[in-house]
Amino acid sequence: MSERAVRVLSWLWPVLLTLLITAPLLAPGYVVGYDMVFVPDLTVRLDLFGVTTAMPRAVPSDVLVAVLDEVVGGQVLNKIVLVAIPLLSGLGMTALWRELRLGAALPGAAAVTLFVWNPFVAERLRLGAWALLLGYAALPWLVRSALRLRKGKGWPGFLLASAGCALTASGGIVGLLVAGLILLWPGRRVVWPLGAAVLLNAPWLVAGLAHGGSATADPASVTAFAARNEGYGGALPTLLTLGGVWNADVVPGNRGDLLPVIFAFIMLLLSIAGVVLWWRQDRIVGALVVAAVVSLLVGMAGVVAPGAFADVVANVPGAGLFRDGQRHLGPLVLLESIGFGVAIHALLQRVPLSRVVGVTAVLLPIAALPALAGGGGLKVSHYPAEWARAQQALDGPFIPWPFESYRAPLWNDRRPVLDPMPRYFDQPAVVPDELIVSGHRLAGEDARAAAVATAVRTAMRDGTDPTPALLQQGVGWLVYDRDAGGAPPRDSIPGLTEVYSAMTVSVYQLAGTHVPQHDPPWRTAVVLAAWAIAGATLAAALAGLVNRRSMVWRSR
To answer: Cα 240 to the chain's mean position, in Å?
Structure first.
């Protein structure tokens, strides 16, 4: 096979990897699990922009979903996101490999496979961290555009990649870290695009600063979210082999088996050797090494210094972003993937049957993690038909019942999922933000949700009437998810009026008139101003990209 044919196939390889991962998930229905919650139509509401008392955990991703599902529908958007994660990751790494000129197409395909097919992707996909993974998919595009900026070109692409990273706070932080190190690395420094990238992160950053409640986190969450040993000799080697998620239930079943362990350490050693070889060619690799080391240190913080880290998250606003340290591992995955490709390129120059060795290397990440094929445990589900009729009966701010963040409903085959009701129904809701990890309840940050939870639990324990407290918090309605289990709300709340009832859901109205809740005008103004600034920056990037493309076409 000619080298040209191999180059063409290298662009098709990410497409094949994407199909191997997502094909079964493209059947009709919704893929929901843990934090991946897509609904038929997420209504564009002011609270999605981050102006409420709740921490802006889904800013700006929820607004993006609410806008786009008006165009394609929630189910189609769900499929597009699932496909985009591995596809953009693979195409981005292919483009970056060509930009770096580190070797032939076959070693580049090995780098692509490791970046697309690894424990970090498998575990975060199973956790439903779709927005974080889209930011991860933007990383190779970000590195490529930052390297081009150092040569005096490519600023629209850099801002678009930065916007992809900024879909979540964690992704935005990682993107700024990687971009900042490359743009400021000795040789040629470029500063202004980094400022523009900060502006793209303004929605979640300003919403967090303007948060009306406490922005500190429960210190117990540090231990709960600490990186875990998955059978690789400790937390550090587990992270170095790109795993270590806090939730044991989402770890691929073959992690820790003998052959996957052997394959993982072979790839790790090759990656380290490749990074050393790359360093000898181009010292810009130092920027990615520093980013990878920082991400590794963040991942290890909850393991090596849990007490000190707990004090930090309990007293420093915003530090809770780093308690789940493994979610920031993207720079390490990127570095190891490129290093793996460099090592394979060097190896192919020195061994016979180089094509056979190269193909084996390309397939090695898949052999180390076969469980990712077919979605890595994700399944297609269908929302109960009664929910659409229940939505028509609901006519005011509500709370879901049971008042818990996650549930394992029958319609989702008892797979855990973040309560979809606040997104499914078009009325605003008070959303519970406490988490139960390993049987321990971790405190949330939203004072309003805490007041509702206290009223509900006191009523269930002591038999008191929580209605006055709920009305005071602006709650006038209650939606009962029967499939989620738990005692019916009528057992704890007297005077409920049943407005709609079906096999899977019931809608109740509380007795009395709820007190309307109004966020301070200054908070709304400041948050929306941040959105306007980020939107203007993104629009400038898109205009620059269109202008550049038109100039290229005119030059032809």
So the answer is: 20
Tokens of 555: 């030059």
242, 316 contact by CB (below 8 A): no
pLDDT of residue 217: 86
Residue 344 to residues 24, 91, 116, 269, 356: CA-CA distances in angstroms? 32, 19, 17, 11, 12
Q: Which amino acid is at 46?
A: L
Model pLDDT, residue 519: 81
Looking at 41-73, list the stretches that DSSP marks H as alpha helix, in order from N- to C-terminal side: 61-72
Q: Find all residues with CB under 8 Å of 32, minimum gap 6, and list them.
A: 38, 128, 381, 412, 417, 420
**Which two structure tokens, joined as six digits, stand for 491?**
């057992």
**Both tokens of residue 199?**
């502006």
In which band, very low, low, confident or very high, does the pLDDT at 317 lie, cut at 50, 70 and 90? confident
CA angle 337, 343, 344 (to 5 degrees): 90
- Give the H or E element holding residue 267: helix 258-281
What token pair was written down for 324? 């789940």
Residues 411, 38, 318: CA angle, nearest 5 degrees = 115
pLDDT digits (tens, 9 = 90+) for 126-170: 999 999 999 999 999 999 999 999 998 879 999 999 999 999 999
262: burial class by Cβ within 10 Å (0-12, 13-18, 19+)? exposed
**CA-wise closest residue to 44 among 22, 28, 19, 68:** 68
Q: Which residues contact 94 (CB under 8 A, 6 or more apart)?
A: 10, 11, 13, 14, 108, 109, 112
Least confident of 16-30, 379-393, 484-498, 525-539: 484-498
Cα separation of 241 and 243, whole Å? 6
List the structure tokens of 226.
């600490």
Dist. CA 478–CA 514, nearest whole Å: 12
What pLDDT, in 10s, does the model give residues 346-380?
999 998 878 899 999 999 999 999 999 999 999 99
d(CA 319, CA 322): 6
Backbone angles phi, psi at 6, to 5 degrees: -65, -40
**Edge-to-edge order in the sheet of strand 398-401:** 398-401, 477-481, 505-509, 497-501
Find tokens 């989402």 and name the residue. 250
Instruction: Note if the bond before 60 is cis, omega within 30 degrees.
Output: yes
Q: Which helix (H) or strand (E) holds 501?
A: strand 497-501
Give the amino acid at 284.
I
Model confidence, pTM? 0.96
| HSE-CB for 467 with a 13 A CA cutoff | 16
